[in-house]
Amino acid sequence: RLFLLIVIISCCLSVVITFGLLLNTSTRSTINSALYYFQRHYNDIPFIHPPPNIDRGIVEEPKQQMGRKPRPNDQVYNFDLKRYHPKNEDEKKREEEGKRKNGFNAFLSDQIPWDRPVPELRDKSCFTQEYANDLPNTSVVIIFHNEVLSALMRTITTVLLRSPAELLHEIILVDDFSEREDLKGKLEDLIRPLSKVKLLRHASRSGLIRARLTGARAATGEVLIILDSHCECYEGWLEPLLDRIQTDRKVAVTPDITTIDWESLEHTSKPGALSSRGSIDWSFAFKWKKIPGYENERRKTEGDPIRSPTMAGGLFGIDRRYFFELGAYDEDMMIWGAENVEISFRLWMCGGSLEIVPCSKVGHIFRGGGNTIWTFPEGADKTLTKNTMRLIEVWVDDEYKHIYYDKRPWAKGRDYGDISARLELKKKLNCKSFKWYMENVVPELTLPGENVAATGPIRNLGTGNCIDTMGRGEHGEVGMYTCIDHSMNQDISLTDLDELQFDSDYCLDVSDHKSGGKVTLYSCHAMGGNQRWVYEKSTQQLIHSISGNCLESKDKDSLALYPCDSTSLFQQWNFRAYHTP
Ligand code: UD2
Ligand code: MN
Q: Where in this chain does the record put each Ricin B lectin domain (predicted)?
């Protein structure tokens, strides 16, 4: 029997050896590459439709053992989105419907691969940085309500694909009570093979604040990273965030949030310098504003973090324990809004800080077309006002509170619930005042009415309508609308630099100096030129200095420059408040 056993073993051995010798080098290297690929990618990239480009893993080189050095993504970026465009009338119809229903091009999102290549947007200086080997690991929390499944899958896939496996502890998905069918069984099928992905579900709609809390409480990684459910992580997005937190556990970080166009789904951001950081407007809502000179002087390279007074809210990282020490979120804020400014104020006032890390890039679909994918069950006004009042009543000093209530007088006396626990937290953490925040974190911010000669709305005596942004942003055309007191879109001032400036920080700008030249919104540059307006009190005309023309509203909707004519009522304007110096 022993003899028989020896014969069998030697037969097996010789088969294995012969087989090994027969393998030529190229087959062997293919097997090695495949093994290598699976070793490097035990993040379990989903090999499900649409198929990810598996070759990427094979060409990748081993990671540095000594210090992590980011390498530029040298793949030529020639991804052709047009291939995925609608091919016939029926598909075009579906595309339009998808945009209407979701606020972004869901049709296209369903067509393009989840792991499509992304352009290299990092500044050169990012590649001179080196990160520690022992970076903390992270739990990524992605919350969603009725998200387009392919957009959610793209977020998950790009986190898995572009995060070093040892730094990605887990991904926690929190479904905030979605109604869409495919977010139920189909989503579960898709994530089943992904060992790092966990799914939690709310039994009722509670809003993004509580959904993130659910995820954060379940997380066990050292760092917590929050993402919206329609993002795309770029190469090297994670390491610079973790590195910054490792250096200072009380700094919260955001990536540079780049724009994925809601209609074309193109990555529209250009490589190079970042120009804005988070601030607030005077309804205490988040606003991007130009990085002030003093902050740019403090930084040595484009890759250096930018201290930011507020965060947009959807994409940020923070030491997980510090997040809870700092009071996590205000759980009585509902659905959406104000939580981003609240956590920003709290970070700065209570001993932490907040930075944008330019070398970390994550794309986000900013919805457009006035469509949202979800609604406010109690109405937008009720929810947003309540959330903002909770922010103001806790974090804004008495001497500044009136700024909000002057703009929103109807909010006075409304119920904002019990804030005693938050006030207690503020005391316990020994937080500084809003005045301190104003003086030290956003010294460039002027109070409303400061440095202004007159405030709007500005009414045309001919039509009786008022100058209105029509809700448009930079480069948008300014229009005319029925006068409404306290409308954000008509909140305009004549500054002591002779600018007509909206609260949004855009100025009335005319670059076409001919008769009929249109008026557009442009970032205020304080240099006069196309933005200098002189209000002639005796004739009530608004004269555009550089062209010598006057602002005129020929009919109730239009606004343009025409040769000055002091007899025309359509060139006469009235400020609600004119402050005589
Ligand atoms: C921005 C933030 C967002 C949040 C919000 C203020 C960015 C890029 N986005 O608006 O994260 O801070 O400002 O509150 O900074 N969601 C739920 N339940 C809800 C409503 C929304 O889970 O009841 C999810 C939604 O699926 C998404 C996330 O919350 O993943 C943020 O919602 P959004 O994308 O509609 O907000 P956004 O980007 O307009
Ligand atoms: Mn979003």
A: 455-576
